[in-house]
Amino acid sequence: MSAPPPELDPVIHAQARLRVVATLATLAEGDQITFPRLQDILQMTAGNLSVHLRKLEDAGYVDITKTHQGRTPATLVALGRRGRLAFEEYTAAVRALLDLSDAKEQR
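and the corresponding structure tokens:
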């Protein structure tokens, strides 16, 4: 009997959140991106991005910092250690699923 296929993290698996986490994972550990820049890269509305960031923040995957740049409020977003680890585990699970699929096709 073979092992069951790996589980995919439901917090990351939603398409929009996967795009957010994958984008943030390209930043060096400890680096941050401004909310408007992330919104521009992902081409998401502010409301949609906010909802997904809240879900990721609630899971402990992203760090949100509210600050000011001069007199202008700024929101900075970073992938936290837990989020980085969750994304690594997620990508490993996807690779394992693809490997299972490849193995079945070769039979």
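(Above: one complete record from the training split.) Residues 11 and 91 are 13 Å apart (CA to CA).
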